């Protein structure tokens, strides 16, 4: 099954000149979702993993399904002031300005083996910030995985030193 055929291009979203990769058509099709989960699992099945950390918000869809398949826990990473308990935060640079992500301070224990998951690897800044959050809490990032990668943005370079896996490459 060619999962890329389930990804819709939306021009000029969220701003002019951007081609947004919309996974909504994939999410609508249970066979495509099952295939995506199977492929993500195949990338990670030989890892000894305690947690999957999913990045808000599209990283939650497959992150929770992957955690279930791996029989491990799931931890959400969110934008500021969205988590109800005490948090640890990481601020990172965007093309124009900064952004911040947060994780519950008790979400990861020292030595936990973690997969960082999101739907897309673009410039790598968001994923790198999440890796730093995991490491601040004493976790070990064993893999960063993504449904798709925008190779031309060279996000892998920011994640050098981490095992990066993707299913679909553009």
TrEMBL record:
GO molecular function, one term: adenine phosphoribosyltransferase activity
Residues that span the membrane, as ranges: none
Enzyme Commission number(s): 2.4.2.7
InterPro entries according to UniProt: Ade_phspho_trans, PRTase-like, PRTase_dom, UPRTase/APRTase
EC supergroup of this enzyme: transferase
Quaternary state and interactors: Homodimer.
Annotated protein name in UniProt: Adenine phosphoribosyltransferase
């Amino acid at each position: 099954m060619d999962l890329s055929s389930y990804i819709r291009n939306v021009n000029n979203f969220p701003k002019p000149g951007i081609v947004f990769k919309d996974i909504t058509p994939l999410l609508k099709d249970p066979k495509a979702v099952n295939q995506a989960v199977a492929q993500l699992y195949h990338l990670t099945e030989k890892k000894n993993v305690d947690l999957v950390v999913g990045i808000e918000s599209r990283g939650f869809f497959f992150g929770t399904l992957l955690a279930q398949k791996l029989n491990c826990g799931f931890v959400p990473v969110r934008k500021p002031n969205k988590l109800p308990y005490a948090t640890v935060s990481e601020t990172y640079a965007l093309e124009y300005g900064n952004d911040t992500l947060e994780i519950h301070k008790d979400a990861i224990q020292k030595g936990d083996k973690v997969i960082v998951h999101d739907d897309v690897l673009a410039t790598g800044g968001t994923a790198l910030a999440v890796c730093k959050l995991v490491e601040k809490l004493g976790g070990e990032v064993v893999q960063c995985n993504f449904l798709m990668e925008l190779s031309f943005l060279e996000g892998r370079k920011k994640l050098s030193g981490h095992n990066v896996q993707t299913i679909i490459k553009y």
